[in-house]
Amino acid sequence: MPSSHKPHPLITGTILLTAAGLLSRVLGFFYRIFLSRTIGAEGLGIYQMIFPVYGIFFSLCAGSIQTAISRFIAAEPEHAKRTLVSGFLLSFSMSLSAALMIRHFSGFLAGSVLMEPRCAPLLSVMAFAIPCTSVHACICGYYYGKEKVSVPAAAQLFEQMIRIFTVFLLASIWIEKKIPITVSLAVFGLVAGEAGSALFVLIFFLLFHEFHGNKNNSANFSDHAAHKPHKFQSTADIPGLLDFLSPMSALLALAVPLMANRLILNLLQSAETIMIPERLTAYGLTRSQAVSTYGTLTGMAMPFVLFPSALVNSLAVVLLPSTARHQSAGNTSGIADGISMSFRYSLYLGIFCIGVFTVFGETLGLQIFKSQDAGSFIQILAWLCPFLYLATSSGSILNGLGRTKLTFFHHLVSLLVRIAFVWFGIPVFGIRSCLWGMLASEVLLALLHILALRRITAFEWNAWILIGKPVFCLLCALWIFRLFPEDFPIPSGFPEFFRTAVRILILSAAYFLLLLFFHRKPQRSAA
Q1: Rounded to 10 degrees, what is the CA torsion of 370, 375, 378, 382?
Q2: Tens digits of per-residue pLDDT, 425-468?
Q3: SS3 sequence, 50-106?
Q4: What is the Cα–Cα distance from 136 to 205, expressed in whole angstroms?
Q5: Helix then strand then coil, % of the chain, to nearest 5
Q6: DSSP secondary structure string, 104-172?
Q7: At what angle do helices 184-208 and 150-176 cross, to 10 degrees?
Q8: How far apart, in whole angstroms, are the C-alpha atoms of residue 9 and residue 17?
Q9: Which CB contacts under 8 angstroms, 24+ apart, belong to 358-367?
Q10: What sign does the CA torsion over 476, 505, 495, 185 have?
């Protein structure tokens, strides 16, 4: 039976994750509007400042172990149970220690590290989210490794719904009882969302999981290969708990370099986060103005620009185990196909986003957030999109090929470029120097990833298909879009944003229909 009609797992997994991601981002979009109008730009800035601490402990306790679990299960699905249980024991024990540490040192972290004492109570509450992230990450890593993305996709959506419901409920209660609404409202929502998603994946896993392989065999992990997951060796004479603990050394062999890499990167990102308000004060702003500007950038403009990235993020999540599976099987053509497809869709989306955000950025900032600065930031950050999406997908492929040290070096160089723009540029040019640094660093990161992939494996690179065609389609779509009246009538009672949304849909329809019109299927020679 020919397999040409079977759905490609990479495409179906990406579509499923993208659908959940887009719906989650739509909900998060309205959630951000609510937060911006409830706690203000300065409140958003204070809220965003706790995420360096959150990111550091997540990378140590959950993120790296999730990646390791996903890779091992993709390459050796018959040992999924031992891999998952070992990874979970490791991750959860570390996350409990991390939560206690954050709560105990919250005052020091807020005042001496983040340079914002108002973050101390927020960190104490945020600590409860860390153990929940370990449960969520490990079980999702299991499903990613199996290339069954429906559960992680549902969990992502469920997390956002719980977070929003919690914040809306608490806000209504506090307003009714005349309790002042503070930034802690958003942190309670963060913890509730993480707890809800952890409970969701845990219950689903316990009710519906299926393991394949010999339960009486245990894995002997030794001499971890640099670019390929271990082949498990049977040690049936090791009974009981050791049957699940034996893979831990191999998981650590892969996860520890990832932890070290992500820790260094998160520390640098934290330094950048702390520097931005400080350097803005050197530019001449007050502390309150600096935190508000930072909140406008990270809490308003960046989520808008990152909104379409649900497609690329979903593709990146699916690409890692898929690439590891192809590498384990020696299927170089499968790796090359994944690279070509990811580059094509990343550039199609990124080039389209340049058109949307440069044309509508100022309008969106004013209509949604009542902020001209947010609109200006959106227009500048629009040029980030193609390079950001390319870097995301290509970095995931490099990780899937086991080149984690290489991706770490690339990210390190990219971050140092951003920090240089922040440290030297902001006191002279203000927040715009930070935006220029983001663009320069993402361009560099994407180029480094692509050049590395070119050295590792051959893949198709057609400049017309990847760049020329989407640029041509965008220009044609903009010309078609200009034919429609700018002030077409909208139903009474609808907000002005509805008119803008319809105009964006018109531009989107024209662009993607033109892409579809110029689509050319690759010719395959007869066997």
Answers
A1: 140
A2: 999 999 999 999 999 999 999 999 989 888 887 777 777 878 88
A3: CHHHHHHHHHHHHHHHHHHHHHHHHHCHHHHHHHHHHHHHHHHHHHHHHHHHHHHCH
A4: 11
A5: 80, 0, 20
A6: HTHHHIIIIISS-GGGHHHHHHHTTHHHHHHHHHHHHHHHHHTT--HHHHHHHHHHHHHHHHHHHHHHH
A7: 140
A8: 12
A9: 358/382, 359/478, 359/507, 360/500, 360/503, 360/504, 363/500, 364/304, 364/497, 364/500, 365/300, 365/301, 367/495, 367/496, 367/497, 367/500
A10: negative
Q: Which of 115-129, 200-214, 378-392 has the lowest mean pLDDT?
A: 200-214
Q: What is the pLDDT of residues 200-256, one digit of tens each?
A: 989 988 887 654 444 443 334 334 334 444 444 443 433 455 555 666 777 777 777
Q: Which two tokens stand for residue 128?
A: 């409860």
What six digits make up the tokens of 254? 């892969």
- Burial of residue 508, with CB atoms counted within 10 A of its CB: 0-12 exposed, 13-18 middle, 19 or more buried: middle
And the tokens for 448?
């480094």
| Domain boundaries along the sequence of the chain | 9-209+222-461, 468-519
Return the CA Rg of the chain: 24
pTM score: 0.69
What tokens appear for 41 in the block? 């730009």
The answer to whether the beta carbons of residues 385 and 308 sit under 8 Å apart is: yes
